[in-house]
Design goal:
Strand content: 5-15%
Largest sheet: 6 strands, antiparallel
Strand order of the largest sheet: 2-1-4-9-6-7
Number of strands: 17
Radius of gyration: 33 Å
Helix content: 40-55%
Structural class: alpha+beta
Distance between the termini: 75 Å
Length: 732
Amino acid sequence: MNKYLKRFKPKRFVDYFSYCFIMFTAIIFLMAFFENDEKGEAYTGNFGSASFNDGWTMELGGEVSEITLPASTGATNGDWIIIRNTLPEDLEGDNTILFRTRMEDLYIYVGGELRESYASENFDNVSYHIPSAYVACDLTAEDAGKEIEARFLVKNVGTIESVSIGSGNNVWFDVLRDNIILAVASFIILIVGIFVVFFYKFAAARFTIDRSFFYMGLFMCSLSMWMISESRLRQLIFVRPSLSNYFSYFAIEITGVFVCGYFDEIQRRVYHKLYVFISCLITGQIIINLALNALGIADLFTTIYISHFWLAISIVLVNGTLIRDIVSGSFKEYIASFVGTCIFLFFCMLEIISFFFADIWSFGVYICAGLMCLLVTTIIQTALRTEKSNRAHEHEKEESLLMTIEAITSAIDAKDEYTGGHSERVGEYACLIAREMAADYDFSEEDILRIRYIGFMHDIGKIGVADSVLNKTGRLTDEEFSLMKKHAEIGYDLLKSMGNSIEGLLEGIRHHHERFDGGGYPDGLEGTDIPLVARIICVADSYDAMTSNRVYRKRLTDGEVIAEIRKCSGKQFDPAIAEIFIRMLERGVMKAATVDGMEVGLSGSVYRSSMLEKKLQSDIRADHDSVLNPSHVRMICYIMKLAEKNDRKFDIFFTGIEVAEDKREDKEFVAGVRKAYSEHVMKYINKRDIYIEYGPSSNIVVLFDRDDEGMKKVRRKFLGYEGDGKAFISEL
């Protein structure tokens, strides 16, 4: 036995099984989305909304009684429950009545006529226990006052749920309202899980990263797909909800494999053989369940109880490893994950208990809550481990971190339609303000540099703001502004795990949009309750915004800037800091690091990347359609900016072909001429150069790493085009 265990590669087995699992579930999900002619799927009706729970009579075992829905009938498997009522007399137009089954067969009669059915006999590919579903039955004005009868063949719990009736699509409103948050949360968890898996695979090929993230991602994917499959909205999500229901039966079990992998990693593979055994046990049970279902011996609903038994045994075994670690004291090595694991296992037990004993199914609520706790503690544990392993190199780590964040903020500036270098300039302005305040506020040189770094990072949260909101040329709607305001909280959450490595960092990021009068965001702080570093950055940030070109306006003059700061003193800005800043402007101590709203380099000359940004903004203001791909042009701006800051040589110009005036109306001819010219240009472009369309009749060319003569030679080749039309080159 030991010989075979040595040969067996559990890590590889789990990987292969994970890939097969992902492919299989993807196929199931895709099949559930596509239309087909399968009969028996639950009918969604025309949609309606008003409760219809009073006045029902119930016939069970020959006895008739009056009931109010929802009701627990006490019926057992195989019993027939018949409930009757009289439809309202005021039915007008098209209406819908909505029942819900819990795996029961349901037949709906109106005026003695079978109007709708949802039963095993209607399906060709579903076993005895059909999926729980809402069943909609259409009604008309002619049905007013008629008797309605619903016959349930009990296959599970014998509970009759609420009934609603109404017109149009409103009958689904309560269902949507009660379940949309969980459905959205499930999709978010799925997206995050997919991202975590692919991030791990990408990162692991390049540097060391904790493998627990991989299992966490798989776990999140499996759990979220189970929640989606079990959601009461699945009829509205899937075209074939019965197909997606197959996955829900074993998805909760398969998460056990991924959880074992996760625990194995955080416990440093001390109990590796045990976790492999548990994973194989769960996997074997799933395969057996699927085989029994395929052979018609036992359906998945019947065998799920066996799966839950083995899952419970697995939880007990995992708890045993945790208890052993507590006794030995080794749990301290992963204390945060240990706490998260305990919470998660507790919620797992609640999930199983609720499935068997609760009045309603929880559909993953408990596990979802446990997962979020586990995710948070995993992040915390990773931070603690990183801090411990790098404590001897803390200074080097901080420098590296700052460089990384500066690169990220530079990328965010490239994403934003501000003139490039916004974050860097805000950091420099904040540094100058802090230096001016040093004597009165007892700032050390370290404090001043710290404020400079915080200024660099203040807008890091904009990485989570959509481009359509960030770069909108007109006034933001209330909804868009609410999204924009989130960037302060996003940045705060992104860097929260850094703790106090840079004092005041989180406060500066979170509160730099607070107003002195309390009207700011995100927390509405007022006066000196706003951290001092945030009040400094608020002024520096506003100053750069006023002295930079925007898509919707050009920079303000120095006089307008002073007037605006004075006007907002005591409202937006701390009056003391505003007064200090105005004095700095009047004395010339503070000067905008831009020329006509454009960024300048160390030599004082305007960056060509900023000149291109200005042209782009101007053209967009004049005619939005004059630039074919603004995002592509902004990417060139960012590439140029990096080249300028690294002293990399490049040349940029516009080129194109002018067609004779009498030929300009011939669109086919013009297109042919421009295509021929582009083919000519591509002969002299190497792999490092850039050549893209700018407008309908001009292109941008960026040549890298050529000497002056080489660049002149390329220009001559462009202008020497001998085909139809006349080539032109225009400078930026």
